[in-house]
Design a protein that fits this description.
The chain has two helices and four strands. By secondary structure, the chain is an alpha+beta fold. It has a four-stranded mixed sheet. A hairpin with a 2-residue loop joins strand 3 and strand 4.
Length: 95
Amino acid sequence: MTATKQKKCEPGLQTAEEWSYNMTMSEHKLADVKAHFSEMVQKAMLGEAVIVTKENRPVVKIVAMKPAKRVPGTGKGVWMAPDFDEPLADFAEYM
């Protein structure tokens, strides 16, 4: 695998709100990313932005997804039977 270049945030790749002082970016050739994809995903999961280049031009940025936040109140209207956690009659012989 070729050596990686550490870069600072390039214009248009990331907004100031998304930038973290400890976030790093690295550039990798498309062929290297293809050969070492799981390593690139691991880097992204650890907080590094992986820039994929083709013919020395950045074409893709691989970053980790933020987990979805739970919103209070989204379960309103969900009904659960009072005997929900009671054993089923079909399984009585196994108990």
